[in-house]
Amino acid sequence: MSAKHYNISYLEQTGRFLKNLKEQSYQPFTAIRKGAVIDLGCGTGMDVLKLSELLGGQVKVFGIDHDPEMLAKGKAAAYDNKQVEFILSEASPIPFTDGTVQGVRAERLVQHLTAPDAVMKEIHRVLEHDHPLVLVETDWPGLSFCNAHLPIERKVIGYLTDVKINNGLAARKLTGYLEAAGFRDIRLELFPFVIRTLAEANEYLWIERILKETADNGFISQEEHDIFLGAMKDADASGYFACSIQVVVTTCVK
């Protein structure tokens, strides 16, 4: 099994890249005046802290993650902020009783889940009726590079969606998961992003690392690896490098 497709540095870098999208994903929670909001799969807690600033002192924001190193970073950043709390836990079961949570947000979590339906049911269980859930997911099958080597690109994306990422098609399946769990008023928005340098593609997508893994795992040959990497480097040097990916933001209520 290959290493997971994120670490602390990756989450911080992509967090800056997605700043405007993140801010929009907070909006469904702004009507909450008191109670509890969960950021499920919170990573280093950057969204927990932002939500606590946005929602005010009558709302407590809980960050839940299974990685103690990431939670430690979140706790250090929160310092003595009594409005936030970090909990070490898997995404299921969620350590709250039925109907006691006023909002749940999960960003780039579902793609890592091996049992997404169970997690959606858990979120539905803990949410209070008529309260919001927001899911933010990367549409990995839509990753596209502007070069002529489409067969190689398809193999790289196949490695990402079928092997590297537990649930690489998650963005395409979100509405189905939500309907099956009993959520309603489902709304979906697409946010396209264009990356114009190879350096940014490495920073936000780890693309050269992924390309190497794709070859190391036999999804492409070394020759195909070299061709695709060379095409990206040539495009970058000539000023016409471009790749695109979209992020899906889905909102709904219990």
From TrEMBL:
Organism of provenance: Hufsiella ginkgonis
Pfam families assigned: Methyltransf_25
Keyword Aminoacyl-tRNA synthetase: no
Example GO molecular function: methyltransferase activity
Gene Ontology terms: biological process: methylation
The protein's name: Methyltransferase domain-containing protein
Matching InterPro entries: Methyltransf_25, SAM-dependent_MTases_sf
Keywords, sorted A to Z: Methyltransferase, Transferase
Domain Methyltransferase: start-end pairs: 37-129
Xref: Gene3D superfamilies: Vaccinia Virus protein VP39
